[in-house]
């Protein structure tokens, strides 16, 4: 099991910025590919961004391209999501997930993730 802990969510105004953090366990289990998803009540979990174990590959949903940046610091066992120019439609619970495999090349499907954090609430006021 890969235990993940998200933090950084809060209330912010339209156009503001936030940085979410996803802390993983120490050691090799922290190096798996990770992704950020978001979910609102009554809807399925939606892909936001993902990053390979080395950080050399990143993938973004069209809705956040140019506004969000995913990065990782493996020395700190942490993956980040920098969110700029936030919009009310970005309001959701944001979840960090890990894929316990280095073989996958597609990180956009929630069903492929093996471990999840508890989520952190992001609310963007208009």
Task: Explain this structure.
This protein is mainly beta. The chain is 0% helix and 43% strand. It has no helices and 11 strands. Strands 2, 4, 5, 6, 9, 10 and 11 form a 7-stranded mixed sheet that branches. A 4-stranded antiparallel sheet has the order 1-3-8-7, with no helix packed on it. The chain is globular, with a radius of gyration of 13 Å. The model has no long low-confidence stretch (mean pLDDT 94).
Topology of this structure?
Layout: E1 5-7, E2 11-13, E3 18-23, E4 34-39, E5 46-51, E6 58-60, E7 68-73, E8 78-83, E9 92-98, E10 115-116, E11 120-125
Parallel strand pairs: 2-11
Antiparallel strand pairs: 1-3, 3-8, 4-5, 4-9, 5-6, 7-8, 9-10, 9-11
Give the CA-based shape.
Answer: globular
The secondary-structure class comes to mainly beta
Strand content: 35-45%
Strands, total number = 11
User: Assembly state here?
Assistant: single chain
Q: How many helices does DSSP assign?
A: 0
- Elements, N to C (H/E): EEEEEEEEEEE
Radius of gyration: 13 Å
Mean pLDDT: 94
Calculate the terminal CA-CA distance, rounded to whole Å: 39 Å
Percent range of helical residues: under 10%
Main beta-sheet strand count, sense and barrel state: 7 strands, mixed
Q: Uncertain spans, ≥5 residues at pLDDT below 50?
A: none
Keywords:
126 residues, mainly beta, seven-stranded mixed sheet, four-stranded antiparallel sheet, 0% helix, 43% strand, globular
């Amino acid at each position: 099991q890969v235990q993940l802990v998200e933090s950084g969510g809060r209330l912010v105004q339209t156009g503001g910025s936030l940085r979410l953090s996803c802390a993983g366990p120490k050691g090799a289990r922290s190096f798996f590919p990770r992704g950020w998803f978001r979910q609102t009540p009554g809807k399925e979990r939606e892909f936001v961004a993902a990053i390979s174990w080395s950080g050399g590959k990143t993938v973004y949903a069209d809705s956040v391209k140019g506004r969000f940046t995913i990065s990782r610091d493996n020395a700190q066992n942490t993956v980040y999501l920098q969110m700029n120019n936030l919009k009310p439609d970005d309001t959701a619970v944001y979840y960090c997930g890990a894929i316990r495999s280095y073989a996958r090349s597609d990180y956009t499907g929630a069903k492929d993730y093996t471990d999840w954090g508890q989520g952190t609430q992001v609310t963007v006021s208009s």
